[in-house]
Write a structure and sequence with these properties.
Elements: H1 9-25, H2 30-64
Helix pairs in contact: 1-2
């Protein structure tokens, strides 16, 4: 991605949350719901790509710091 179109992960996650709420409301006509679903898929792909890039950068930094082995990062899902 070029620097002019830098992906903003936080904004994308917020937008995705809003889309999910709108779709879950069930108040949208089918055509609008399909468009929002399509937008959500695009946001999800962008988020996945941004997270993969971040993971690769962390791996590079860890290797350059002398740590060859990375531990899995566990997420506590107590929300």
């Amino acid at each position: 991605m070029s620097s002019a179109k830098k992906f903003n992960l936080e904004k994308a996650l917020s937008d995705l949350e809003t889309l999910v709420e709108e779709l879950e409301s069930g108040d949208l006509p089918l055509e609008k719901a399909m468009k929002k679903f399509e937008d959500g898929i695009k946001l999800t792909r962008g988020c996945q790509s941004a997270l993969k890039d971040a993971e690769q950068k962390v791996e590079i930094l860890m290797k350059s710091a002398g740590s060859e082995e990375l531990d899995d990062f566990l997420i506590d899902d107590e929300d």
